Amino acid sequence: MNLDTLTKNENDEIQREIIVQIRDLINYKNLEPGDKLPSERSLSERFGVSRNNVREVIRKLEFYGLLMSKPQSGTFVADIGQVALNGMIEDILKLDTPDFKSLVETRILLELKTARLAALRRTEQNLKEMEATIKAYENKVHNGEDAVQEDLLFHLAVARASGNGTMITFMLIITPEIITNFEKYHVCDKNQAFTAIQEHWDIYEAIKAKNPQLAKANMKTHFSALYQYLYNIE
Amino acid sequence: MNLDTLTKNENDEIQREIIVQIRDLINYKNLEPGDKLPSERSLSERFGVSRNNVREVIRKLEFYGLLMSKPQSGTFVADIGQVALNGMIEDILKLDTPDFKSLVETRILLELKTARLAALRRTEQNLKEMEATIKAYENKVHNGEDAVQEDLLFHLAVARASGNGTMITFMLIITPEIITNFEKYHVCDKNQAFTAIQEHWDIYEAIKAKNPQLAKANMKTHFSALYQYLYNIE
DNA sequence: GAAGTAAAATTGGTTAACCAGATTGGTTTG
DNA sequence: CAAACCAATCTGGTTAACCAATTTTACTTC
Question: Which among B176, B175, B183 has a CA at the least distance from the CA of B155?
Answer without folding.
Answer: B175
